Amino acid sequence: MNLATNYLGLPLKNPIVASSSPLSHSVDSIRRLEDAGASAVVMYSLFEEQITFDSLYVDAYLRAGTHSYAESLSYFPEMEDYNVGPDEYMNLIRRAKEAVDIPIIGSLNGVSVGGWTNYATLIEDAGADALELNVYYVPTDVELTGTAVENMYFDLLGQVKSSVSVPVAVKLSPFFSSTANMAKRLVEEGANGLVLFNRFYQPDLNLETLEVEPRLVLSNSNELRLPLRWVAILYGRLMTDFAITTGIHNAQDVLKGLMAGAKVTMMASELLRNGVGRIDEILQALTGWMAEHEYESVNQMIGSMSQQHCAEPAAFERANYMKILGSYQPTT
Question: What is the pLDDT of residues 163-187, one digit of tens each?
Answer without folding.
Answer: 999 999 999 999 999 999 999 999 9
